Amino acid sequence: MKKITIIAALSCIYTVPLHAAGLDRSGQSILAFLQPNNYFEAGISVLDASLSGTMNDNFNKGGLSSAANMHTGDIANSYYSPSAALKFQLTDHFSLGFLYDHPFGADAGYPIKEFQAYTEGTEKSESEVVSQNLSTIVGYQPNENWNFYAGPALQTVKGKSRLRGAGYSWSRYDLDAPETTGVGWLAGAAYMVPDIALKASITYRSEINHDMDMTESLNILHPVYGRIDLGTSTEKSNISTPQSINVDLQTGIMKDTVAFANIRWVDWSEFKISPKMLYQFTEQSTGAGVHLAAYYDDQISANIGIGRKLNEKLSGTFSVGWDSGAGDLVSTLGPSKGYWNVGLGAQFSPAKNYFISGGVKYFWLGDAKAQSGFDFGTEKYDAVYQDNHAVGYGLKIGYRF
């Protein structure tokens, strides 16, 4: 039992915020539900990214010779993400848990002065996506080794976007998608061997469908007739946040020391945001409908590390992470192709039943070619993003009762 307590403590401190492929943010960890006995935790994570690039000739759709090699400025806005978990061990064989997080999101803006000069005033392109997820989980433990669990997931999503300038065929496009709710599910199994502090789990989360009332307005710059206002329209559009699989592993490797790993797959290649007005207009005018956001490949990420109990009150972790990205051409919502990172974490336990933990990760963001939705499915791209980085911070409190 002592070894399990050490594992439970260390597993709480190696997860700090992600900057992953697609719109992935939280990583949707299940580890809080696998804590022994009754357990509560609450945390907050912050990501501060520096993400800038250089526009190329494809951006110059409006015939401006100075567009090539123009710098975008830092387009990534810092964000914070709260999370919480509550788990009850109802009997020796049944448990009930609730997990809350912000699994997906984006917050990008293009502030460059040169770009603004070509977009009629000081308006800029910017997009934001916000989601919340509450999972209810029921677990069945036939013995001390196995835990089978499943339950529904309630999810909300909202978003807005303002697209301006040459990178978007000289259009002025606004989108407002008020918050909507969808329901999905998760299921998984965990295997534990207390004597060697082994814990292994695999968790599947379904895609979640959202029928959204999207309000769009579109204004284009015609080469002959000048600017044409195509009006405003509100119609239902469907998006589905992607299905995913998480594999979590941890085991004792020597006294007071554990090794851990997490592998995650997310089905981003099936994800698309296709507002009806934008899609239908571009399909009629060009023969190919435009997606506001889409990805070419699925995401695979991995995080491995070690944790060690330093004394009765203090523990620490070190981790290394990798993310594949979601294709060689990426969305302008998050223009990086995966990452490498290193992380450090520490946990202070003033008493056996509660702790405070924190962590920091440094990310080397992968170089990427960013493509607007107008060019999805082609080899065209608007900008190249290189030598970018991010720093993530996390703080968590936990209580066992």
From TrEMBL:
Q: How does it sit in the membrane?
A: Multi-pass membrane protein
Signal peptide region: 1-20
Which InterPro entries is this protein grouped with? OMPP1/FadL/TodX
**Cellular location(s):** Cell outer membrane
* GO molecular function (one): long-chain fatty acid transporting porin activity
Q: Keyword check for rRNA-binding, yes or no.
A: no
Q: Which SUPFAM superfamilies match?
A: Porins (SSF56935)
Q: Which domain of life is it from?
A: Bacteria
Main localization of the protein?
Answer: membrane
Tell me which UniProt keywords the record has, alphabetically.
Answer: Cell outer membrane, Membrane, Signal, Transmembrane, Transmembrane beta strand
- Which GO cellular component terms are attached? cell outer membrane
Coiled-coil spans in chain: none
Family, according to the entry, reads as follows: Belongs to the OmpP1/FadL family.
The record's annotation in PANTHER family points to: OUTER MEMBRANE PROTEIN NMB0088-RELATED
What protein name applies here? Transporter
Provenance organism: Acinetobacter amyesii
